[in-house]
Q: What sequence folds into this?
């Protein structure tokens, strides 16, 4: 496997105006735009935040999302001396699209990247739609290497139903389960203009407007300029290659994962 730092813009976008250079976590592209060539010749994109030499934690982004999402953890990772490795899943950000995959297949990608980075031990954490991928690692990766697994507000298997979801969210996810490609296209239509606009401040404006619907600490968090910039670039990266990667993510999270949750049995 080989690795390099690249500076690519999506074929569907014109070069974006610089907006993120003020954020230390995103300023160094030798850390945020890393790619690794896997034995299959596919590309896996990743970013490193926090301490470049600290104990490793693989971060699995939400849906939609990308390696840029991990920048939110940079200040805490620096303080704690942790190396956060945020990885693009196939078809998102810099990672090659992989057809006909399962959630379970993600563990092999992580194992290959860990070997490339010469990591003997590491931990994983998945947020929202990334939670399933953390569980896939808990199911398949050797305990001598995988020292810890974390899931933050993760989605459960679709087979257990949608208890606790708001009705409109339940409707959207049911549509997603039956017609993931359609939902991917609809999501693309909703965000296409702002994500593909060469001026990223257009997306920033939308994020500022949407933050007004949040309350309390969520609102205060979303109104921070650094968080808005991270969100803006993260969303742009999600659609970097078009709709296929996002649609596939929807299909995967609502389809059988390729392993049974009750069989994971990870005890750390």
A:
């Amino acid at each position: 496997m080989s690795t390099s730092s690249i500076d690519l813009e999506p074929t569907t976008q014109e070069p974006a105006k610089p907006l993120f250079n003020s954020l230390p976590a995103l300023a160094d592209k030798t850390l945020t735009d890393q790619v690794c060539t896997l034995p299959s010749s596919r590309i896996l994109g990743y970013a490193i935040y926090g301490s470049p030499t600290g104990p490793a934690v693989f971060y699995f982004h939400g849906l939609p999302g990308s390696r840029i999402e991990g920048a939110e953890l940079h200040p805490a990772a620096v303080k704690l001396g942790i190396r956060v490795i945020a990885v693009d899943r196939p078809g998102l950000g810099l990672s090659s699209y992989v057809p006909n995959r399962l959630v379970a297949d993600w563990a092999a990608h992580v194992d290959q990247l860990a070997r490339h980075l010469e990591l003997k031990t590491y931990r994983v954490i998945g947020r929202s739609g990334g939670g399933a991928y953390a569980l896939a690692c808990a199911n398949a990766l050797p305990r001598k290497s995988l020292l810890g697994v974390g899931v933050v507000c993760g989605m459960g298997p679709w087979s257990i139903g949608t208890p606790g979801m708001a009705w409109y969210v339940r409707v959207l996810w049911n549509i997603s389960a039956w017609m993931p490609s359609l939902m991917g296209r609809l999501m693309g239509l909703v965000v296409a203009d702002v994500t593909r606009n060469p001026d990223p401040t257009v997306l920033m404006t939308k994020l500022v407007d949407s933050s007004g619907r949040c309350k309390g600490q969520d609102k205060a968090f979303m109104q921070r300029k650094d968080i808005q910039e991270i969100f803006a670039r993260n969303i742009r990266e999600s659609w970097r290659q078009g709709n296929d990667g996002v649609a596939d993510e929807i299909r995967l999270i609502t389809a059988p994962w390729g392993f049974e949750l009750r069989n994971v049995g990870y005890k750390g």
Notes: The beta strands are 2-5, 34-37, 43-50, 56-60, 83-87, 122-127, 146-152. The two ends are 29 Å apart (CA to CA).
